[in-house]
Each structure stands twice: as structure tokens, then as C-alpha cells.
Amino acid sequence: MTDRKFRFGIVGGAPDLAAWTGLARRAEELGYDTLLSPDPQVDVDPFTLLSAAFAVTSTLRVGTFVAVDALRDRRHLAWQARSLHKLSGGRFELGLGTGRPEAERQAAALGREFGGGARRRAALAETIAHLKETGDRPPLLLAAGGPKMRELAAREADTVTMAWLPRTTTEEAASIVDDFRAAAGERWPEIELAVNLLAYGDEPAPWLERFIGTSVPELAAAHAVTVLTGTPRQAAETLREWRERLGISYVTVNSGYLEQFAPVVEELRGT
User: What range defines the domain where residue 37 resides?
Assistant: First the structure.
């Protein structure tokens, strides 16, 4: 479905600056393409830390995954994005989203209005329009969960990460991608499709199982597109199948799997 080469990213936080820069260095050493910060980054604004990762790397791209639009004034956000884009020599990638319900508490602390889903989507669309009006800008990643966000992403995004539910099967994912492809129309070849893995490997992940209410082996047995198991070679073959069937060429994973997932990156890098 796509002939794009694979890209691989790490999504992670760090308790302090030394840990963050160490993560950036190691991700670059292992061949990852991107280091992405959640919002917030532990308990601070991610934009505060991003430049530190640029300063200790030379090829690694760094971005947000994803910045919550409702937490920021769009003009200030555009200024931050342009600044990082320029200072990094084009290595910054801006990930945006409407935010999960729990982000409402952070919005209140900042004196920002959170609003319902429709309102947040409309505000996000206005932010994107403003970003595009400002000229030179970083690549835009949108996290798309429901149909309305996928419609917006089909119109505006450079990269779309499909925020699938943990139990989403390959067949269900294929149906969603088919609808997205139809919505994107002529833009489809321009859009990079991504997936964020919840887990990799055959080891139990109790913390994740508490969060999603099921185990990684159960998800793998159900052919969920949110986890990968098996040897690096087997995982690489699965990702090739996903690229062929679903159009996914960009794969991100939690920084807790940084070392464990590296052999898969090595298997597929440049292909």
C-alpha cells in the first residue's frame, strides 16, 4: 500500500535533564529516527526540554507526541514551533492533538478552557490554519482516534498516527485505513501513516495490563495492531506485512522498550 521506507521513534519522558539527554544520545546510537515527548513531559512543558535533545545529537529528529492544543495559545505555539524548526536545522516535528479527558485538569491549572470534543477539534483546526499561514513550518503529525479527527488529519497532516484502541485487530485496522484513504483522496500518497505500539516482546507487562485490562499475549493472539511479539526477525516480518496491507511505515514505541526494540530497528532500517 506504500513504498515509504520505515521510520522508527521512541516516545518517552525523563525525570531530569541528564536522563533526557542520555535518552536522546542512546536513541540516536541505536538507529532510531525520532525521539518524541509526551505532553506534559513528566510534570513540565515538553517544549522546555526539546532543545536539549537537539544539542546532544546530530541526526535525530525530535518532536511532541502529542502537544495538547487546548493548553496553549496558538500564536505562542506557532512561535515555539518555528523557533525549534529553525534552531534544529529542520529536525523538529510537531505532533498535535485535542488531548485526552485527563488533560482538562492541566488546562484548568493554566487558566485555559478545555471544552468538549467538537470544540477542541474546531480549535485545533484553527491552530493548524494559523501554523500554515506563518510560512516555513515543521512537519505536522496529528493523532487521529475517532472519525472526525481522521477527517481533519486526512486534510491537514503530514503524518497521522492512528490512535487505535488496544484491542483493534488487523482486520478492523484495515477497514479504518481504507476509510481514511478514501477521505484523503489525492493527498493519500503524501501522508505518512504511523502506529504507536503499546508493547514489544514476549515478556509480561503488568503495568500495561493494569492499564488496558488484558495481557500482551492475548492481544497478540487476537492479531491486535497495538503490540508486537516474537523474535526481531518475526516482528520485522509483521511490520512488513502491516506496511503492505495497512500502509504503516512509521513505528513508535515507549522508551521502556528502547533497547529491546533496537534489533527490530536494525533489521528494517533503510528498507
Answer: 7-194+232-268
